[in-house]
Amino acid sequence: MDLRKLDDEHYPAFSTGQAAELLGVEQPFLRSLDNAGVVTPKRSSGGHRRYSRHQLGLAGRLRELFDEGHTLVSAQRILQLERELAEANAELARLRHRLAEVEGDRPVGPTGGSTE
């Protein structure tokens, strides 16, 4: 076995039982997410669900949102908006870094302008 795979957050390393235990949920909760197409685990050669760390993070976040009273539809929308915000923040950081390089390493303020 290649242990480096365990470093990959998308590697399907956890059975349904292990995933449920790690998240503190019941196995039917995870199966319901799969049936709804929200978190779709890989299948082992025997047909058993295998979850990745990334999928466990999504399932855990969904559990939090459900506990706050959100429906599946609203929880999915929140996750989508959180992903989009993270992508936008990453792009902003890349652009600020690039701007700093272009401006000759002058410090860049929080709005992207030079602090000079």
From TrEMBL:
Q: InterPro entries, per this entry?
A: DNA-bd_dom_put_sf, MerR-type_HTH_dom
Q: What is the lineage of its organism?
A: Bacteria, Bacillati, Actinomycetota, Actinomycetes, Pseudonocardiales
Q: Where is the HTH merR-type domain?
A: 13-81
- Determine if Calcium is one of this entry's keywords: no
Mind telling me which SUPFAM superfamilies this protein's record contains? Putative DNA-binding domain
The biological processes this protein is annotated with in GO are:
regulation of DNA-templated transcription
Q: Which UniProt keywords apply?
A: Coiled coil
Q: Which residues form a coiled coil?
A: 78-105
| Name the UniProt record assigns to this protein | Transcriptional regulator
GO terms, molecular function: DNA binding
Q: Is the keyword Protein biosynthesis in the record?
A: no
